[in-house]
Amino acid sequence: MNDYINPFKDVVFKYIFGRDETKDLLISFINAVLQDAEMEQVTEIEILNPFNIQEFTEDKFSILDLKARDVNGEIINIEVQLTEQNGYKHRTLYYWAKLYSGQLKQSENYFELKPVICINILDFNLIKELNNFHTCFLPYEYKNKNILLTGHFQLHFLEITKFRESVKDLNDDLKFWFKYLTLEGLEKEDEMKGVLDSKPEIFIAHEEYKKFTNNDKMRDLYEARLKWQRDHSTLIQQAKMEGLEKGKLEGKLEG
């Protein structure tokens, strides 16, 4: 439908989860991911880069993420990436390293470092060797998987394209959160009703989504970013095609 606003789009996702008044939704979502990987849950968080409309209007080039810190000082970063990127594995590792090293001030020592958890929501297949919707990578000794080097490193990947096939293997909280996010805006009332009844936080998220879609300023912002992303993608594709044509022409000339 033309009116459909994708809740995974950076501005919508951050509006729903990235405000102080909705941080209970963020805690619920993070815990669903951590529980699925049998990790320790968070009880309270501080959003380090809360939703701010100016970040979307002033810098269309940035990739939006959502950073939070729990009561133990652990940093949790969530990023939504809807277009496939070459080298994404290296990119997320680099970003984890920046967040980890960026914790220390000049006078502090390594004992001050806290765990950094990166949660990547992707609309493309990254881990091609597995069909799992949710994968979590930790630093183990390669011959002794029971020996963990440190609990400071966690990289989670949630691949939307694999969700339907993996749904039976997920914990209920993560399953219902992604059922909600993949159904929102599609007017599938029968399927959505069961999802909205599953958790109070999901019902609240749905209400926040409706507030976003009913706000003309937010809708205009969404459409502006969508237009920029489409234009940017078209320019990249055009450059690739022109590069291929140039390569073919040079090949003919050399032949």
Describe the 3D structure:
This protein is an alpha/beta fold and 255 residues long. Helices cover 47% and strands 16% of the residues. It is built from nine helices and eight strands. The chain has a six-stranded mixed beta sheet with strand order 1-2-3-4-8-5, sandwiched between helices. A two-stranded antiparallel sheet has the order 6-7. Helix 2 (23-36) crosses helix 6 (172-183) and helix 6 (172-183) packs antiparallel against helix 7 (189-196). It starts with 9 loop residues before the first helix and ends with a helix.
Model regions low in confidence, pLDDT < 50 over at least 5 residues: none
Q: Give the beta-strand count.
A: 8
Separate helix tally: 9
Radius of gyration: 20 Å
- Indicate the percent of residues in helices: 40-55%
The SS-based structural class is: alpha/beta
Tell me the overall shape: globular
> From N to C, what is the helix and strand string?
HHEHEEHEEEEEHHHHH
- Give me the side-by-side strand order of the main sheet: 1-2-3-4-8-5
| Biggest sheet architecture | 6 strands, mixed
What is the CA–CA distance across the termini?
50 Å
- Give the overall pLDDT as a whole number: 88
